[in-house]
Design brief:
alpha/beta; binds pyridoxal-5'-phosphate; about 350 residues
Protein backbone atom coordinates (compact mmCIF):
# COMPACT_ATOMS: atom_id res chain seq x y z
CA UNK A 1 0.00 0.00 0.00
CA UNK A 2 1.23 3.50 -0.81
CA UNK A 3 1.60 6.07 1.93
CA UNK A 4 -0.17 8.56 -0.29
CA UNK A 5 -3.61 9.19 -1.69
CA UNK A 6 -4.00 7.75 -5.18
CA UNK A 7 -4.19 11.17 -6.82
CA UNK A 8 -0.88 12.14 -5.19
CA UNK A 9 0.84 8.99 -6.46
CA UNK A 10 -0.51 9.68 -9.94
CA UNK A 11 0.19 13.42 -10.18
CA UNK A 12 3.37 15.13 -11.27
CA UNK A 13 4.91 17.72 -8.99
CA UNK A 14 5.26 21.33 -10.12
CA UNK A 15 8.79 21.91 -11.37
CA UNK A 16 10.15 25.30 -10.31
CA UNK A 17 12.76 26.97 -12.53
CA UNK A 18 16.35 26.29 -11.61
CA UNK A 19 17.55 28.39 -8.62
CA UNK A 20 21.36 28.65 -8.58
CA UNK A 21 23.04 29.26 -5.23
CA UNK A 22 23.63 32.90 -4.31
CA UNK A 23 27.10 33.81 -5.52
CA UNK A 24 26.94 31.52 -8.58
CA UNK A 25 27.83 33.69 -11.51
CA UNK A 26 24.92 33.30 -13.88
CA UNK A 27 22.60 35.62 -15.74
CA UNK A 28 19.29 34.48 -14.37
CA UNK A 29 16.38 35.04 -16.75
CA UNK A 30 14.31 31.94 -15.96
CA UNK A 31 11.89 32.75 -13.11
CA UNK A 32 10.83 36.34 -13.80
CA UNK A 33 12.45 37.91 -10.77
CA UNK A 34 12.87 41.68 -10.98
CA UNK A 35 16.54 42.47 -11.80
CA UNK A 36 16.56 45.53 -9.51
CA UNK A 37 16.89 45.44 -5.71
CA UNK A 38 13.83 45.97 -3.49
CA UNK A 39 12.91 49.48 -2.30
CA UNK A 40 15.48 51.00 0.11
CA UNK A 41 12.51 51.55 2.45
CA UNK A 42 11.97 47.78 2.53
CA UNK A 43 15.63 47.23 3.41
CA UNK A 44 15.37 49.88 6.14
CA UNK A 45 12.29 48.14 7.55
CA UNK A 46 14.19 44.84 7.54
CA UNK A 47 17.03 46.35 9.55
CA UNK A 48 14.56 47.81 12.04
CA UNK A 49 13.12 44.41 12.93
CA UNK A 50 13.77 43.61 16.59
CA UNK A 51 14.13 40.35 18.50
CA UNK A 52 10.84 40.87 20.29
CA UNK A 53 8.82 40.76 17.09
CA UNK A 54 10.55 37.50 16.16
CA UNK A 55 10.02 35.96 19.60
CA UNK A 56 6.26 36.28 19.30
CA UNK A 57 3.91 34.76 16.76
CA UNK A 58 3.02 37.23 14.01
CA UNK A 59 -0.39 38.88 13.59
CA UNK A 60 -2.53 36.05 12.11
CA UNK A 61 -4.34 38.54 9.85
CA UNK A 62 -1.22 40.46 8.68
CA UNK A 63 -3.07 43.70 9.40
CA UNK A 64 -0.21 46.13 8.71
CA UNK A 65 0.56 44.61 5.33
CA UNK A 66 -3.13 44.44 4.40
CA UNK A 67 -3.65 48.09 5.36
CA UNK A 68 -0.78 49.11 3.11
CA UNK A 69 -2.20 46.94 0.31
CA UNK A 70 -5.66 48.48 0.79
CA UNK A 71 -4.21 51.96 0.25
CA UNK A 72 -2.27 50.94 -2.85
CA UNK A 73 -4.97 48.77 -4.44
CA UNK A 74 -7.81 51.19 -3.58
CA UNK A 75 -10.09 48.65 -1.86
CA UNK A 76 -11.28 48.37 1.76
CA UNK A 77 -9.01 46.31 4.01
CA UNK A 78 -11.83 43.76 4.58
CA UNK A 79 -11.48 42.83 0.91
CA UNK A 80 -7.88 41.68 1.35
CA UNK A 81 -6.24 38.56 2.75
CA UNK A 82 -2.48 37.99 2.92
CA UNK A 83 -0.43 34.86 2.38
CA UNK A 84 3.05 33.47 2.08
CA UNK A 85 3.18 34.32 -1.63
CA UNK A 86 0.21 34.31 -3.99
CA UNK A 87 0.92 30.62 -4.65
CA UNK A 88 -0.33 30.05 -1.11
CA UNK A 89 -3.61 31.84 -1.87
CA UNK A 90 -4.00 29.49 -4.86
CA UNK A 91 -3.39 26.50 -2.58
CA UNK A 92 -6.00 27.78 -0.11
CA UNK A 93 -8.54 28.25 -2.91
CA UNK A 94 -7.92 24.66 -3.99
CA UNK A 95 -8.23 23.43 -0.41
CA UNK A 96 -11.47 25.32 0.17
CA UNK A 97 -13.20 24.84 -3.19
CA UNK A 98 -12.00 21.67 -4.91
CA UNK A 99 -12.90 18.03 -4.26
CA UNK A 100 -13.57 14.97 -6.42
CA UNK A 101 -16.54 15.64 -8.69
CA UNK A 102 -15.76 19.37 -8.86
CA UNK A 103 -13.70 20.89 -11.66
CA UNK A 104 -11.01 23.47 -12.13
CA UNK A 105 -10.90 25.22 -15.53
CA UNK A 106 -8.37 27.51 -17.18
CA UNK A 107 -7.19 28.45 -20.67
CA UNK A 108 -3.87 26.98 -21.86
CA UNK A 109 -0.99 27.52 -22.16
CA UNK A 110 -0.71 29.08 -18.72
CA UNK A 111 0.95 28.79 -15.30
CA UNK A 112 1.79 25.11 -14.75
CA UNK A 113 0.82 25.28 -11.08
CA UNK A 114 -2.93 25.29 -11.88
CA UNK A 115 -3.18 21.62 -12.97
CA UNK A 116 -1.10 20.63 -9.96
CA UNK A 117 -3.67 22.28 -7.66
CA UNK A 118 -6.51 20.42 -9.37
CA UNK A 119 -4.82 17.02 -9.31
CA UNK A 120 -3.86 17.46 -5.66
CA UNK A 121 -7.58 17.69 -4.83
CA UNK A 122 -8.41 14.75 -7.15
CA UNK A 123 -10.37 17.01 -9.51
CA UNK A 124 -10.84 17.09 -13.25
CA UNK A 125 -8.76 19.84 -14.87
CA UNK A 126 -10.54 21.35 -17.86
CA UNK A 127 -8.01 22.96 -20.20
CA UNK A 128 -9.48 25.21 -22.91
CA UNK A 129 -6.92 26.33 -25.52
CA UNK A 130 -6.56 30.10 -25.99
CA UNK A 131 -7.81 31.27 -29.39
CA UNK A 132 -5.25 31.83 -32.12
CA UNK A 133 -5.34 35.60 -31.45
CA UNK A 134 -4.78 34.86 -27.70
CA UNK A 135 -8.41 35.69 -26.91
CA UNK A 136 -9.92 33.89 -23.91
CA UNK A 137 -12.15 30.91 -24.83
CA UNK A 138 -15.03 32.38 -22.82
CA UNK A 139 -17.78 30.04 -24.05
CA UNK A 140 -15.70 26.91 -23.47
CA UNK A 141 -14.81 28.04 -19.96
CA UNK A 142 -18.43 28.79 -19.08
CA UNK A 143 -19.47 25.37 -20.40
CA UNK A 144 -16.70 23.73 -18.35
CA UNK A 145 -18.64 24.66 -15.18
CA UNK A 146 -15.58 24.86 -12.96
CA UNK A 147 -15.96 25.33 -9.23
CA UNK A 148 -12.83 27.40 -9.85
CA UNK A 149 -11.89 29.11 -13.14
CA UNK A 150 -8.50 30.76 -13.33
CA UNK A 151 -7.31 33.43 -15.76
CA UNK A 152 -3.70 34.51 -15.53
CA UNK A 153 -3.41 38.13 -16.74
CA UNK A 154 -0.85 39.09 -17.96
CA UNK A 155 -0.55 35.43 -18.84
CA UNK A 156 2.47 33.35 -17.95
CA UNK A 157 4.15 32.29 -20.30
CA UNK A 158 3.10 34.64 -23.14
CA UNK A 159 2.62 38.03 -21.43
CA UNK A 160 -0.80 38.65 -22.98
CA UNK A 161 -3.43 40.57 -20.97
CA UNK A 162 -7.06 39.42 -20.77
CA UNK A 163 -9.68 41.88 -22.00
CA UNK A 164 -11.86 43.37 -19.28
CA UNK A 165 -14.91 42.57 -21.38
CA UNK A 166 -14.05 38.82 -21.44
CA UNK A 167 -13.36 38.78 -17.70
CA UNK A 168 -16.64 40.52 -17.06
CA UNK A 169 -18.58 38.07 -19.17
CA UNK A 170 -16.93 35.18 -17.28
CA UNK A 171 -17.80 36.79 -13.94
CA UNK A 172 -21.41 37.23 -15.05
CA UNK A 173 -21.87 33.70 -16.34
CA UNK A 174 -19.82 31.45 -14.07
CA UNK A 175 -21.47 29.95 -11.03
CA UNK A 176 -18.10 29.16 -9.44
CA UNK A 177 -15.21 31.42 -8.43
CA UNK A 178 -13.32 33.41 -11.04
CA UNK A 179 -9.67 33.80 -10.01
CA UNK A 180 -7.65 36.45 -11.85
CA UNK A 181 -3.96 35.87 -11.21
CA UNK A 182 -2.35 39.29 -11.64
CA UNK A 183 1.20 38.40 -10.61
CA UNK A 184 2.57 40.58 -13.42
CA UNK A 185 0.06 43.44 -13.51
CA UNK A 186 2.61 45.97 -12.20
CA UNK A 187 4.17 45.83 -15.69
CA UNK A 188 0.84 46.09 -17.53
CA UNK A 189 -1.23 49.03 -18.74
CA UNK A 190 -4.43 47.73 -17.15
CA UNK A 191 -5.74 45.43 -14.41
CA UNK A 192 -9.01 43.88 -13.26
CA UNK A 193 -9.21 45.24 -9.70
CA UNK A 194 -12.45 47.10 -10.48
CA UNK A 195 -14.23 43.76 -10.93
CA UNK A 196 -14.04 42.74 -7.26
CA UNK A 197 -16.31 45.60 -6.27
CA UNK A 198 -18.90 44.62 -8.89
CA UNK A 199 -18.85 40.82 -8.74
CA UNK A 200 -18.90 38.80 -5.55
CA UNK A 201 -17.46 35.70 -7.28
CA UNK A 202 -14.18 37.31 -8.41
CA UNK A 203 -10.90 37.00 -6.53
CA UNK A 204 -7.81 38.87 -7.70
CA UNK A 205 -4.32 37.66 -6.80
CA UNK A 206 -1.41 40.03 -6.31
CA UNK A 207 2.19 39.41 -5.25
CA UNK A 208 5.28 41.31 -4.20
CA UNK A 209 7.49 38.74 -5.94
CA UNK A 210 7.70 40.39 -9.36
CA UNK A 211 7.04 44.14 -9.52
CA UNK A 212 8.36 44.76 -5.99
CA UNK A 213 11.54 42.64 -6.30
CA UNK A 214 10.63 40.59 -3.21
CA UNK A 215 10.34 36.98 -4.43
CA UNK A 216 12.48 35.84 -1.49
CA UNK A 217 10.23 37.53 1.08
CA UNK A 218 7.10 35.52 0.15
CA UNK A 219 4.13 37.87 0.33
CA UNK A 220 0.98 37.81 -1.75
CA UNK A 221 -2.64 38.90 -1.46
CA UNK A 222 -6.10 37.69 -2.41
CA UNK A 223 -8.61 40.48 -3.02
CA UNK A 224 -12.32 39.61 -3.02
CA UNK A 225 -15.69 40.28 -1.43
CA UNK A 226 -15.44 39.60 2.34
CA UNK A 227 -17.95 36.71 2.01
CA UNK A 228 -15.56 34.89 -0.31
CA UNK A 229 -12.57 35.60 1.90
CA UNK A 230 -14.48 34.27 4.90
CA UNK A 231 -14.59 30.79 3.33
CA UNK A 232 -10.95 30.84 2.26
CA UNK A 233 -9.76 32.13 5.64
CA UNK A 234 -11.23 29.02 7.30
CA UNK A 235 -8.55 26.86 5.66
CA UNK A 236 -5.67 29.30 6.21
CA UNK A 237 -2.73 28.28 8.38
CA UNK A 238 -2.92 30.40 11.54
CA UNK A 239 0.36 32.26 11.21
CA UNK A 240 0.91 32.00 7.48
CA UNK A 241 2.80 35.28 6.99
CA UNK A 242 6.00 35.92 8.96
CA UNK A 243 6.55 39.05 11.06
CA UNK A 244 9.36 39.91 8.68
CA UNK A 245 7.16 39.67 5.57
CA UNK A 246 4.40 41.77 7.15
CA UNK A 247 6.82 44.54 8.11
CA UNK A 248 8.98 44.60 4.99
CA UNK A 249 6.03 44.08 2.66
CA UNK A 250 4.10 47.05 4.08
CA UNK A 251 7.11 49.34 3.63
CA UNK A 252 7.69 48.14 0.05
CA UNK A 253 4.05 48.61 -0.94
CA UNK A 254 3.94 52.20 0.32
CA UNK A 255 6.99 53.24 -1.72
CA UNK A 256 5.03 53.99 -4.89
CA UNK A 257 7.77 56.08 -6.49
CA UNK A 258 10.32 53.28 -6.31
CA UNK A 259 7.92 50.81 -7.95
CA UNK A 260 7.24 53.27 -10.74
CA UNK A 261 10.95 53.83 -11.31
CA UNK A 262 11.98 50.14 -11.51
CA UNK A 263 8.94 49.14 -13.54
CA UNK A 264 9.73 51.89 -16.08
CA UNK A 265 13.27 50.54 -16.42
CA UNK A 266 12.03 46.98 -16.93
CA UNK A 267 9.46 48.06 -19.54
CA UNK A 268 12.10 50.03 -21.45
CA UNK A 269 14.43 46.99 -21.43
CA UNK A 270 11.53 44.73 -22.48
CA UNK A 271 10.82 46.84 -25.56
CA UNK A 272 14.53 46.97 -26.42
CA UNK A 273 14.89 43.21 -26.04
CA UNK A 274 11.80 42.58 -28.20
CA UNK A 275 13.29 44.69 -30.99
CA UNK A 276 16.72 43.03 -30.72
CA UNK A 277 15.24 39.52 -30.79
CA UNK A 278 13.01 40.38 -33.74
CA UNK A 279 16.13 41.57 -35.57
CA UNK A 280 17.61 38.09 -34.93
CA UNK A 281 14.47 36.68 -36.62
CA UNK A 282 12.87 35.43 -33.38
CA UNK A 283 9.09 35.52 -33.30
CA UNK A 284 8.21 37.70 -30.28
CA UNK A 285 4.77 37.75 -28.63
CA UNK A 286 3.62 41.21 -27.44
CA UNK A 287 4.12 41.28 -23.66
CA UNK A 288 2.62 43.33 -20.83
CA UNK A 289 4.82 41.61 -18.25
CA UNK A 290 8.49 41.41 -17.29
CA UNK A 291 9.26 38.54 -19.66
CA UNK A 292 9.03 37.74 -23.35
CA UNK A 293 7.70 34.58 -24.98
CA UNK A 294 9.71 33.94 -28.12
CA UNK A 295 10.27 31.38 -30.86
CA UNK A 296 13.83 31.05 -32.17
CA UNK A 297 14.14 31.32 -35.99
CA UNK A 298 14.27 27.54 -36.51
CA UNK A 299 12.03 26.59 -33.59
CA UNK A 300 15.03 24.85 -31.98
CA UNK A 301 14.19 26.21 -28.53
CA UNK A 302 15.68 23.29 -26.61
CA UNK A 303 19.02 23.68 -28.40
CA UNK A 304 19.09 27.43 -27.74
CA UNK A 305 18.11 26.85 -24.10
CA UNK A 306 20.92 24.31 -23.59
CA UNK A 307 23.50 26.40 -25.43
CA UNK A 308 22.64 29.46 -23.33
CA UNK A 309 22.85 27.37 -20.18
CA UNK A 310 26.36 26.19 -21.09
CA UNK A 311 27.30 29.86 -21.33
CA UNK A 312 25.75 30.52 -17.91
CA UNK A 313 22.59 32.25 -19.08
CA UNK A 314 19.40 30.69 -17.72
CA UNK A 315 16.09 31.10 -19.56
CA UNK A 316 12.94 28.94 -19.31
CA UNK A 317 12.10 26.12 -21.71
CA UNK A 318 8.91 24.11 -21.17
CA UNK A 319 9.05 20.61 -22.59
CA UNK A 320 5.30 20.59 -23.26
CA UNK A 321 3.27 20.13 -26.43
CA UNK A 322 2.67 23.36 -28.41
CA UNK A 323 5.20 25.41 -26.45
CA UNK A 324 8.35 23.31 -26.64
CA UNK A 325 9.53 25.31 -29.68
CA UNK A 326 9.48 28.51 -27.61
CA UNK A 327 11.36 30.11 -24.73
CA UNK A 328 10.33 32.42 -21.93
CA UNK A 329 12.97 35.02 -21.17
CA UNK A 330 12.76 37.30 -18.12
CA UNK A 331 13.71 40.92 -18.70
CA UNK A 332 16.96 41.82 -16.92
CA UNK A 333 19.18 44.89 -16.69
CA UNK A 334 20.45 46.55 -19.89
CA UNK A 335 23.85 44.87 -19.34
CA UNK A 336 22.26 41.45 -18.96
CA UNK A 337 20.21 42.04 -22.09
CA UNK A 338 23.23 42.95 -24.20
CA UNK A 339 25.10 39.88 -22.89
CA UNK A 340 22.09 37.76 -23.87
CA UNK A 341 21.87 39.22 -27.38
CA UNK A 342 25.58 38.86 -28.11
CA UNK A 343 25.55 35.25 -26.82
CA UNK A 344 22.50 34.46 -28.96
CA UNK A 345 24.25 35.89 -32.03
CA UNK A 346 27.13 33.56 -31.32
CA UNK A 347 24.91 30.49 -30.80
CA UNK A 348 22.81 31.07 -33.92
CA UNK A 349 25.79 31.86 -36.15
C1 LIG B 1 5.34 34.27 -10.12
C2 LIG B 1 3.92 33.90 -10.22
C3 LIG B 1 3.12 33.92 -9.08
C4 LIG B 1 3.65 34.46 -7.79
O1 LIG B 1 3.93 33.57 -6.89
P1 LIG B 1 4.37 34.03 -5.43
O2 LIG B 1 3.97 32.81 -4.69
O3 LIG B 1 3.59 35.22 -5.04
O4 LIG B 1 5.83 34.27 -5.50
C5 LIG B 1 1.76 33.65 -9.19
N1 LIG B 1 1.22 33.37 -10.39
C6 LIG B 1 1.96 33.36 -11.51
C7 LIG B 1 1.33 33.12 -12.81
C8 LIG B 1 3.34 33.61 -11.45
O5 LIG B 1 4.07 33.57 -12.55
Amino acid sequence: MSFFRRCIDEMQAYEPGEQPFPGDRVIKLNTNENPYPPSPKAIEAMKGLDGESLRRYPDPLSTNAREAAARIYGVPVEYIMAANGSDEILAYIARACLEPGRKIAYPVPTYLLYPVLGRMQDCDCIEAPYYEDLGIPVTELIEAKGAVTIICSPNNPDGNTASLKDLQSLAENLSGLLVVDEAYCDFAADNAMALVKRFSNVIILRTLSKGYSLAGLRLGFGIAHPDVLKGILKVKDSYNVSAMAIRIGAAALLDRDYLKETVAKVIKAREGLAADLAALRFKVWPSQSNFLFVRPPDGNAEYVFKSLRKRRILVRHFNKPKIKDKLRISVGTPDEMSALISTLKDILK
